[in-house]
Amino acid sequence: MDGLSDLQMTLITYAFRIPTVLIAITVHEVCHGLAAYKLGDTTARDMGRLSLNPLRHLSPLGCICMLLFGFGFAKPVPINTRGFKHPKRDMALTALAGPLSNLALAVIAIFIESLIDMIPVPESYGFGYWVLFASYNFIYIFYLMNLSLCVFNLIPIPPLDGSRVVLAFLPPRQYFGLMKYERYIMLALFALIWTGVLNNFIFTAVNALSGAIHFLIRLLPFIG
Predict the structure, then answer these.
(1) Is residue 1 part of a domain?
(2) Per the residue annotation, which of 29, 113, 123, 182 is the catalytic one?
(3) What range defines the domain where residue 13 resides?
C-alpha cells in the first residue's frame, strides 16, 4: 500500500489479528457450548463457558498459533456425553458447531468486504481514505482467519473438531479407544503446526473454500 512501509503494514496486520482472534475463538467456543446445551449437556453453561468474555476461552498456545500462523485453537469447552441422548451423533453435531460458526463469520465478513469494494476510493490520503483502508484490511484479515480456523478445526486429527465428526462413524470400542490417545496425538499436532507441515494443506483448502464463497456472493444481484 502506497504511503506505508513493510514494517507498518506488518504492525497493522498484527493489530487487526488480535481482535479477530478474540472474536473468532470466543464465538467458536460459545457455539460449541450452545450446541451441547441444546442437545442436553449443561456442563458448558454450568461452568460459565457460554460467556462472550474471551478470557474464559483463550488458550495461550492456541492464541500464539493464531497470531503467527492465522489458525489455532482455544481452551476446549467441557462436554459430558452422558447428557446426550445419542452420544456419538450429538458429539459430532456439537463439534461441527464451532467450525460452522467461523464459516458464518467469514461469509458475513466477505459480504461486508464486497459492500466496501463498492465505495469509491478517495484520491488523496485524507481521513476518509484511511478509514476505508483500515475497514477493508480488518475485514479481509477477519475473513481469512475465520476461514482458516474453520478449515483447521475440521481436520480429522484429535483433538480437533473434525475428529469428533469422523469418529462418530466408528464402533464405540474403536471410538473411545482412540480418544484415550488424544493427548499424545495433540503433541504430534503441535509439531505439525510449528514445522509448517500443515500449512500447504490448510492454505489450499482455504483458497478453494474462499473461491466458492466469492462465487456465491457474486450471484447476489446487487453485488455481482
Answers:
(1) no
(2) 29
(3) 6-218
